[in-house]
Amino acid sequence: MTAFLLERAWVDGAVHDDVLVDVVDGRFAQVTPGGSGGERVAGLTLPGLANAHSHAFHRALRGRTQRGQGTFWTWREQMYAVAERLDPDSYHRLARAAYREMVAAGYTSVGEFHYLHHRPDGTRYPEEDAMGSALQHAADDAGIRVRVLDTCYLSGGFGEPLAGAQVRFGDGTAEQWADRADGGPAAIHSVRAVPRDQLHVFRDWAPLHVHLSEQPAENEACLAAYGITPTRLLHEEGLLGPGTTVVHATHLTDDDVRLLGDSRTQVCVTPTTERDLADGIGPARRLHDAGCRVSIGSDSHAVVDPWEELRALEMHERLATHRRGHWTAAELLAVGTAHPALGIDDVGAIAVGQRADLVTLDTRSPRTAGTGADEHTAVFAATAADVVRVVVGGELAYTPDDDEEIGRELDEAIGALWPAP
């Protein structure tokens, strides 16, 4: 057994002083506010946060794709150029460093939306899941819990074949993809990447993730192809529900919002990526009020900072509505700890029986000092730089002593993918 005395901690929807937690076999065996004894942990401690949507290889794009002008579609071509260069070894090195950065920011679980399946020419590796295995091993090395969401990606657009870098994403048909995926956590890349007549393969599959209505062009193309929106297409194919998480959901009709809410479909929003790619501001609050559980993701890793993602939910609503006060701090923490989006129901609370994930913030930094050392500090003041300690499943996974090594690993892994200046 390991015992920690948390100076301040978020327990049962409130911040308490001197919370004693006993950890046995990676889970909380006892949680006692106002306790004593154990290893003292200074600062504000929260449950581990969930990164429900990640593309690990996109980390190599930070600081490069932001240059100049363009749209999501021009950014995509730059992304494909990196996708062509990766093999299992280089992907492991890049993902390991990217996942270590996530842990340092306070994420303790990650959903990896994985479609880099095969060799650049589309042929399979001798070990069919070599790229997926590289991600799993990278997460194990980094100390983060991962759900590799094996992604079906069959077409380059409605009625279009895969081309260029996309050929390494494909499996031919949804049935062939399912044989390879073998029942694990899964994703449909988008309704433009999987033909309607193959969507039936994914019914009753959970957890199931899908990019949805990230761009108006996707909606327009879906209407042209099928006469309905992407959301209604998923509804008519029986793919909405609590086991499904739609990602982005930025450009929705009122009917789309109703369908998602009535079905209790989960929604993952990625505010820092959506603004980086000029996607737009989605109706996250309306979706929450309609009945959807909302989660966050770092997506393209233009920013890896859950506190900024959570803060952006509120700030983007303010920009869109010209009003303040859409989300409470407690609601935002519930969004940040939404591990069920990954099919994980026993993480996200400091409570007996839950897995012992703990993220501690410095409450006396230049950013957080004087802000109350409570839930408002976490979501309205702190940044990833204020994370001073992360425990995953009862094991210490990060302290600031790791920062130099994480930076070096990122620099080496990313530098190997780009030509020397």
Description:
Strand 2 (14-24) and strand 3 form a beta hairpin. Helix 2 (88-105) packs antiparallel against helix 13. An 8-stranded parallel β-sheet has the order 5-6-7-8-9-10-11-12. The model has no long low-confidence stretch (mean pLDDT 96). With 421 residues, it is α/β, with parallel strands linked by helices. The protein has helices at 72-83, 88-105, 130-142, 174-181, 216-226, 230-236, 254-262, 271-276, 284-290, 306-321, 329-336, 375-380, 403-415, and strands spanning 2-11, 14-24, 27-33, 39-47, 49-54, 107-114, 145-152, 186-188, 208-212, 244-248, 266-269, 294-296, 358-361, 387-392, 395-398.
Structural class: alpha/beta
Order of helices and strands: EEEEEHHEHEHEEHHEHEHHEHHEHEEH
Q: Write down the Rg.
A: 21 Å
Number of discrete helical segments:
13
Terminus-to-terminus distance: 52 Å
**Approximately how much helix is present in the residues?**
25-40%
* Order of neighbouring strands in the sheet with most strands: 5-6-7-8-9-10-11-12
The assembly state of the depicted protein chains is single chain
State the total count of DSSP E strands. Answer: 15
What form results from the Cα inertia axes? globular
Low-confidence stretches: none
Strand content: 15-25%
Can you give the mean pLDDT? 96
Report on the biggest sheet: 8 strands, parallel
